[in-house]
Structures are given as structure tokens and as C-alpha cells.
TrEMBL record:
Species of provenance: Viridothelium virens (Speckled blister lichen)
Subcellular localization(s) per the UniProt record: Mitochondrion intermembrane space
Protein name: L-lactate dehydrogenase (cytochrome)
Record domain FMN hydroxy acid dehydrogenase: where: 1-368
Binding partners and assembly: Homotetramer.
Reactions catalysed: (S)-lactate + 2 Fe(III)-[cytochrome c] = 2 Fe(II)-[cytochrome c] + pyruvate + 2 H(+)
Lineage: Eukaryota, Fungi, Dikarya, Ascomycota, Pezizomycotina
GO molecular function, one term: L-lactate dehydrogenase (cytochrome) activity
Superkingdom in the source lineage: Eukaryota
Segment of the intact protein contained: 109 to 479 of 497
GO cellular component terms attached to this protein's record: mitochondrial intermembrane space
Cofactor: FMN; heme b
């Protein structure tokens, strides 16, 4: 269908389910075992209700904000996801160009289908002034051969990437049965990790086969080692309880991303929103100490705005950006425009004109008071 008939993230998902190859759809859409967390990630947002404040002049609204000091046009970003080239030949490069043209931050995965240098280069070609460009972050999976990770971190820093995001919620790959069932097509490579999707006796699980380079021995002490490899700000992605959030704070990391890997790692792990509420109860001081991001199941401007009201600096979207790539860079830009309109409309409806006015009072969380 033509791009102008696509009105929501759901429309993009619908097209992707019909046009991506069966392997690509299985890899992108799959989640761990019974996929409870994948569905809960989104459905929990519907149980948070707004407390709109009315009769305010909402003609002019701004969605601008900052992420680790970098200016961005919108409070959402591209979460790191492997192998975008399976959806479009330009993959992460098309994502980078779309994000650059709209002022959106992108986090590039260690399992990206292009080397980081090529992705950075794709944006540089756009010719936009360096100063106005949104930041690129790099997501790290620690390689069992640590020297490879050290070299990658040095390369990333030299390329002008603005932060490193260490993923901590996938020491091993989750059990994703849809991904196992569909055989891999061959020739699928992740150049930075050296991963190659194939088939083995157990099946065709791309996540499992491509994730086999990841070092499961990583522990809190290794944060020091990563700090020694580069000077960039460090974010931990995949934090799922207040105790670990506090550990991260004590270690002095610059930010945490509350995430369950889109439900792909541990089924029945908690949606990020619940962890965000846990932080309000157990360590409210954390919101002044570092930036908190959330991802998982974010599909609407209202989802984005609720997370921001509850204290998130910005939120990530994984699958929706991969699905938008069915239309290449134009699809990415269209997705960003859709979400931008939705964010602006919901801001007006609850009485906000800038994001720094957002606070928890705009959201009624009683229905999800699990703690
Ligand atoms: C991911 N995710 C992910 N995370 C990460 O840190 N490194 C990675 O390489 C990947 N790869 C990846 C591949 C695919 C196909 C998906 C769908 C996801 C997780 C990702 O960053 C993010 O946490 C989730 O995608 C967020 O959930 P939604 O927005 O997809 O619901």
C-alpha cells in the first residue's frame, strides 16, 4: 500500500508481516517462549490513564529535549536492533539518514548489518552541519574475545559516536520458538560481531546463533574495564529492578535503559513501566542522578508521553523502526512524523506545551500498583 495510507505503527507492522520474508518476520517479531512479556509491554500502557489538565493555551507546542546533553527534536529514539538490512538493502544506513533528517537519536547495535563506520558515513554524506545532527549511540555486546570489544569501542569513540549502551539483559539469547522454526536464508552477516546466521541441529534461531559470541561472564566489575577502553558516557540497557538501578547509580554510570529486550530475553520479565514505578517507590533520588530511558511495546504518542510524565528522559522503539524500513528511508521519516503528530496531539490534550512541564501527576497509575 502507498505510504500515505499508513497512519500508525500498527499499519507499518501489518505491511511488514505481509511483505518481509518469513525468516525476517520471524526474527523481528519473535519473543521468548510464550511471548507474555512482549504483549504486556504494550498492554500495560493502556492501563495507565491520563489526568488531563484543560483550558490552557496549547496552540504552540515543542517536542524538543536533550539526551545526555545532546539536542534532539523528539523524546524517542531508535533502540538498537540487529540486522536491519533484512528489511531493506540500506538497513541501518536508511535509519541513520531518516533520523538525521528529523533530529532523532539512533542507537546502533553491535549486530548491525553494516560496520559502524559506514553508518556514521551515511549521515555525513547528507551534508548537514555536524552541530545540528542528532547523536548516534553505540550498543555493545561484550565479545568472548575481549580484545575485539576493546578495538570496537576505540573505533566507535574515534568516529564521534556520543555514548556507549551496554546491554545487560541478554547474557544468553532467549528461547524464541518462531525464530527457531523458520530456517535461515544464508549469507546474513553482522560484520561487527562476526556473526553469521545459519542453521544448526537445534534449528534456525538467528538470535541464538548470532548471539553466540556474547560473553556470559560479564559482571559489575567489568564496568571499570569498559570505562578504561573509552571515555564516552555509559548507559546500561536492560535494567529490570530498583536494586540493579541503584547499583548502576553507585557505579556512576550516566544513564540506564529500563528494558526487557522487547520480551525477547526472559518471558514474564517486567515491562519497563513497572520498573519505572518501582524506582519512584524505592529510590526516587535516582531521577536526579542520571537519565532514565525506557523501551518495549511503545507504539503510540500516548505511550511515549506517559513514560515521559513518569520520569523517563526519552523512550526507544525497536520493531516499529525495523518495520518502517519496508519503505526505506522514506518509511522511517513517515514513522517519525506519525509519532511526532501523536506526541504533539496528546501533549495538547493533557495541557502541556513543552516536555519539561511533564510530571507524574498527569498519569493515574492506580491500576498497575503491583508493589
Ligand atoms: C532487538 N533488541 C536488541 N537490543 C540490543 O541491545 N541489541 C541488539 O542487537 C538487539 N537486537 C534486536 C533485534 C530485533 C529484531 C529486535 C526486535 C530487538 C532489543 C531492542 O533494542 C529493544 O529493546 C526492543 O526492540 C524494544 O521493544 P519493541 O519496541 O520492539 O517492542
Amino acid at each position: 500500500p502507498p505510504l500515505d495510507t499508513i497512519l500508525s505503527t500498527h499499519d507499518f507492522e501489518d505491511v511488514a508481516s505481509r511483505t518481509l520474508t518469513p525468516k525476517t518476520w520471524a526474527f523481528y517479531s519473535s519473543a521468548a517462549t510464550d511471548c507474555h512479556t512482549r504483549s504486556l509491554n504494550n498492554s500495560l500502557f493502556h492501563r495507565l490513564l491520563f489526568r488531563p489538565r484543560l483550558l490552557r493555551n496549547v496552540q504552540r507546542v515543542s517536542t524538543h529535549t536533550t539526551i545526555l546533553g545532546h539536542h534532539v527534536s523528539l523524546p524517542f529514539f531508535v533502540s538498537p536492533a540487529a540486522m536491519a538490512r533484512m528489511a531493506h538493502p540500506e538497513g541501518e544506513k536508511a535509519l541513520a539518514r531518516g533520523c538525521a533528517s528529523r533530529g532523532v537519536m539512533q542507537c546502533v547495535s553491535t549486530n548491525a548489518s553494516f560496520p559502524i563506520g559506514e553508518i556514521v558515513g551515511a549521515v555525513a554524506e547528507e551534508g548537514e552541519g555536524e552541530g545540528r545532527r542528532p547523536p548516534l549511540f553505540f550498543q555493545l555486546y561484550v565479545n568472548r574475545e575481549r580484545a575485539k570489544s576493546e578495538a570496537l569501542l576505540r573505533e566507535v569513540e574515534a568516529l564521534g559516536v556520543k555514548a556507549v549502551v551496554l546491554t545487560v539483559d541478554a547474557p544468553v539469547a532467549g528461547k524464541r520458538e518462531a525464530d527457531e522454526r523458520v530456517k535461515a536464508e544464508g549469507g546474513l552477516r553482522a560484520p561487527m560481531s562476526g556473526g553469521e546466521a545459519g542453521n544448526d541441529k537445534k534449528g534456525g534461531g538467528m538470535g541464538r546463533i548470532m548471539g553466540s559470541f556474547v560473553d556470559p561472564t560479564v559482571r559489575w566489575e567489568d564496568i571499570e574495564w569498559i570505562r578504561r577502553c573509552m571515555k564516552l558516557p555509559l548507559v546500561l540497557k536492560g535494567i529490570q529492578c530498583a536494586a540493579d538501578a541503584k547499583m548502576a547509580m553507585e557505579m556512576g554510570v550516566d544513564g540506564i535503559m529500563l528494558s526487557n529486550h522487547g520480551g525477547r530475553s526472559l518471558d514474564t520479565s517486567p515491562p519497563a513501566i513497572l520498573v519505572l514505578l518501582e524506582l519512584h517507590k524505592c529510590c526516587p533520588e535516582i531521577f536526579d542522578k542520571m537519565e532514565i530511558y525506557v523501551d518495549g511495546g511503545i507504539r503510540r504518542g500516548t505511550d511515549i508521553l506517559k513514560a515521559i510524565c513518569l520520569g523517563a528522559t526519552a523512550v526507544g522503539l525497536g520493531r516499529p523502526f525495523l518495520y518502517s524500513l519496508a519503505y526505506g528511508q522514506e518509511g522511517v521519516e513517515h514513522l517519525i512524523e506519525i509519532l511526532k503528530d501523536e506526541v504533539k496531539t496528546s501533549m495538547r490534550m493533557i495541557g502541556l506545551t513543552t516536555l519539561d512541564q511533564a510530571h507524574p501527576g498527569y498519569v493515574n497509575t492506580l491500576d498497575v500498583d503491583y508493589l
